[in-house]
Amino acid sequence: MRVVRGRAASVEADREFTADLLAGAKTGQPALRVWRPHRQVAFGPRDVHSDGYDRAREIADERGYAVCERSVGGRAVAYTGTTVAFARIEPVDDMREGVQQRYATARVDLRAALGDLGVDARRGEPEGSFCPGSQSLQAGRSGKLVGIAQRVQQDAAMVAGVVIVDDHTEIAETLAPIYDALDLDFDPRSVGSIAKAGGEPDPVGAILRIEDELLGDRLASVEWLGE
From CA 158, how far away is CA 133, in angstroms rounded? Predict the structure, then answer.
């Protein structure tokens, strides 16, 4: 497993690097990243086609967030610069098979990592959550702290997502006007975090635990991606 730490010099370069890892998996090279992306708001395809999209972009820019657009996935997600992201990329023999198994494996691994950090997380999310999805994790009444998605292409699959460590307040305050502009239901109180759930609010510690669980017993070659 190729384990990559750190991030590229810009939002665009960082996204391109992950895309390159996905392309590499098609030739048989699995990869893993757990990192803190640059400060940005990532909009989904349905956001881009919303009547309020231009205003939503303006709001993100006014708050000092870069704007990027995903070709797949759900609704807008904010990364503050300390928000943790993960991506586990693997070759697949048949893109029609294994989707639910990969989701289930990721949930188990992430729950184990969160448990090590003092958080008892379960599948689900509150009403009015950001980027709603069936694979989310929440911790009691403290809100959604993990979102999980999957991208499957011919010969490769990527299970990726976001883990909110301690920046739930900023994420909630950022997404509230953006979701309002997009005319989407959103409850700022639904945004959770490891810190909000009483866990260890250390992004570096979270990265190490998540990386360890997502890697499992695979042999790893570690490299650093410098800015």
Answer: 16
